[in-house]
Amino acid sequence: MASNGFKVCVGNRSPSKVDLTVRRAKDEKNLPIVGSTSPENFVSQLKKPRRIVILVMAGKPVDDTITALSAYMEPGDLIVDGGNEWYPNSIRRAEQLAMRGILFMGMGISGGEEGARNGPSLMPGSTKKAYELMEPILTKCAAQVEDGACTGYIGPVGSGNYVKMVHNGIEYGDMQLIAEVYDILKNIVGIPNNDMARQFARWNEGELSSYLIEITAKILAKADDVTSEGYVVDKILDKTGSKGTGKWTVQEAAEQGVAGSVITASLDARYLSARKQERIDASKVLTGPKETPNVSKPQIVEDLGAALYCAKICSYAQGIGIIHAASKANNWDVDLAMCAKMWKGGCIIRAKLLDKIQAAFTKNPDLPNLMMDPSFAKELNERQMSWRRIVTLCIASGITCPALSASLTYFDSYRRESLPANLTQAQRDFFGGHTYERIDHPDGTPFHCAWTKAHKDIGDISQRTAGEKTESVL
Questions:
Q1: What are phi and psi of 291, to 5 degrees?
Q2: E strands within 36-127?
Q3: Letter string b/e over residues 407-435, b meaning 16 or more CB atoms within 10 A of that residue's CB
Q4: Helix (H, G, I), strand (E, B), or coil: what is residue 465?
Q5: Which value, to the nearest 10 degrees, does the dihedral of the CA atoms of residues 196, 197, 201, 202 take?
Q6: Given Cys at both, which of 317, 323, 391, 452 links 370, Cβ 3.0 to 4.6 Å?
Q7: In this structure, is the dihedral angle defined by the CA atoms of residues 89, 94, 95 and 99, taken in order, positive or negative?
Q8: CA 169 to CA 177: how far, in whole Å?
Q9: DSSP-assigned letter for residue 186
């Protein structure tokens, strides 16, 4: 903010951190930042209506910070929470503050250390009045791309946190897909780190260009800075951490009745990676295939690029599907094209692919699924055999590819007019009297079958289906 000409007052529980920030600002071209000594002193230095952005750990620390600051605030002032917060908490806080006339915004922020100084992706959810107070700051401080700032009004309180949550879920999926490609290059193709780094760099020059592909090339090429032998990535323990947003996204996918298999697979992969000792023990008992396919290595590399591209389309399709379903359920009216635009710069999932995603939803805001866009449908149809060859190769070789295979299964399930769900529903009716619909009665009339002599009349069928959700969004 200060780098963009806004005068900023900073506060922290630790006075030394405030002093350090003020000193750094002075050293960096004398940026307009002043410090504070207490919540009261902090609030008193702000111009009315006050606009306060808090960046603290989600949960109780946010509530405690709001309590400390709001004691000195007035009606018309605004608090912006920029943390990764569970969206119902933002809705609750907005309602509580509204009773005192204080405005609240829950804003997702993505970009890491680089975005913090050079412009992040900003995803605000609030009333229009609150957004208008922050808009000049957000528009100027956000990452900038060819068609503007990577921010905009998403919708009411909660929607900004939700979009950021799903952004992180897509991020989980993208990272897992890249990890699986790395695993295949390393353990099936057998190429060294420098060659892998060059391959990822080549992919980053084309349609797969993205922040995560770019940094993967740099990571693979980085020599070990501790021993000066080998590469850093080969010294890192294979245990991946998580902070909760991926789990929230999977939970919300289930809540909204939306398939989120790629994100779910990536979360499961992290959970399995955390069980390192169990895997060590299992490796001594459980075995993989003794014979593996002999496939042209250049063909594998070529197929990998196509498979990764197709899987990424599915990952974005699932994430956007979750946002779309939640937007309908909560009457948020989220603009999906704008979400894609927000993610084009500053954030972790920024990628060239987002230009096409933005164009798809600009052309057809009611697109039921990203895969149904004519351009994406054509690419998926043309490249699917590369995708299938990679998944088949992994299975035959005993190399795990949960996200790649989940994305392909998603594609196959969505493209099929008929699925074996008829048998599943018949089983539900057999053991639980859950009824079923018939293909020769397209009006949706529920039926129940007396499958055996032991089955009795279940009475009013409508009572059996009350509360069931059979419609979902892929």
A1: -115, 130
A2: 51-54, 78-81, 103-110, 121-125
A3: bbbbbeebeeeeeeeeeeeeeebeeebbb
A4: helix
A5: -30
A6: 317
A7: positive
A8: 13
A9: I
Distances (CA, A) of 186 to 126, 182, 306: 46, 6, 18
Q: What is the pLDDT of residues 368-415, one digit of tens each?
A: 999 999 999 999 999 999 999 999 999 999 999 999 999 999 999 999
The single-letter DSSP state of residue 290 is: S
Percent of the chain with pLDDT over 70: 97
Amino acid at 226: V
Residue 10: in which H helix or E strand, if any?
strand 8-10
Are the beta carbons of 77 and 48 closer than 8 angstroms?
A: yes
Q: For the chain, how are helix, strand and coil distributed in percent, rounded to 5? A: 55, 10, 35
Contact (Cβ atoms closer than 8 angstroms) between residue 108 and residue 165: yes
The beta-carbon contacts of 41-44 under 8 Å, at least 24 apart in sequence, are 41/11, 42/9, 42/11, 42/69, 43/69, 43/72, 43/73, 44/72
pLDDT, tens digit, 9 for 90 and up, residues 169-180: 999 999 999 999
Of 85, 171, 252, 379, which residue is the catalytic one? 171
Answer yes or no: are the C-beta atoms of 34 and 11 closer than 8 Å: no
| Residues forming beta bridges with residue 107, ordered by sequence position | 124
Q: Let me know: does 195 contact 172? Beta carbons within 8 Å.
A: no
Give the C-alpha separation, 39 to 11, whole Å.
Answer: 7
Residue located via tokens 């009013």: 460
Selecting among 164, 247, 344, 356, the annotated active-site residue is: 164
Query: Distance of CA 330 to CAs 51, 162, 226, 248, 474, Å?
Result: 27, 11, 51, 17, 18
- Would you say the C-alpha torsion 130, 135, 138, 142 has a positive or negative sign? positive
d(CA 254, CA 266): 16
324-350 pLDDT per residue, tens:
999 999 999 999 999 999 999 999 999
Calculate what percentage of the chain has a pLDDT beyond 90.
88
Active site residue 164: yes
Strand duo 144-145 + 148-149: pairing: antiparallel
